[in-house]
Amino acid sequence: MTRKRPDYSEARKYYIKGERNEYPTLQDIATEFNYSLSTLRKKAANEGWLKKRKERLKLKDIIEMRKEFMGKASKLANVSFNAISAAEYIINKIQEEQKEIELGNKSYDDNLASRQVWTLNNAIRLIENSQKILDEIENGYLSPTNDISFI
């Protein structure tokens, strides 16, 4: 007569995932499921239960941190959009100033030219940095589900 092997899947799941942020010891599981503690220890060691629990806890922390950051990411996206709008406004003002110079309503000098170049360079840099941030948000680099291999 063959002896039926115990099914450790429920015990494994309980040990790795825990219950309501409480994680039982192997002694607790052995008592609850009426398993031999030494057999349970061997089974847990061979299957890497502790490592899986630690990975799960680490992943849980990462997900929680990223969820918190996602609210900040939407605010960051709004700031980036506003920065792009501000830079475009500045560029339009310089274009208007150039039209005034072309029409002869405003005098042109080296000081004005260097100010315009400096302003345009900063506006372009602002747009590029803002666009980079928006691309990172859009491409999911700030997603709370990155780095998930299992749950």
- What integer is the average pLDDT? 85
Proportion of helical residues? over 70%
What is the H/E string?
Answer: HHHHH
Largest sheet: none
**Distance between the terminal alpha carbons, to the nearest Å?**
39 Å
Strand percentage: under 5%
Give the class from helix and strand content and strand pairing: mainly alpha
Q: Supply Rg.
A: 31 Å
Domains (count): 2
Shape: rod-shaped
Number of helices: 5
Number of strand elements: 0
Residue windows where pLDDT falls under 50 for at least 5 positions: 147-151
Describe the structure.
74% of the residues lie in helices and 0% in strands. The protein has 151 residues and is mostly helical. The protein has two domains: 9-47; 68-138. Helix 4 (49-102) runs antiparallel to helix 5 (110-138). The chain starts with 8 loop residues before the first helix and ends in a 13-residue tail after the last helix.
Task: Provide key terms for this protein.
151 residues; mainly alpha; 2 domains; 5 helices
Task: Walk me through the topology.
Layout: H1 9-17, H2 26-33, H3 37-47, H4 49-102, H5 110-138
Helix pairs in contact: 1-4, 2-3, 4-5
In short:
With 151 residues, the protein is mainly alpha-helical. Helices cover 74% and strands 0% of the residues. It folds into 2 domains: 9-47; 68-138.
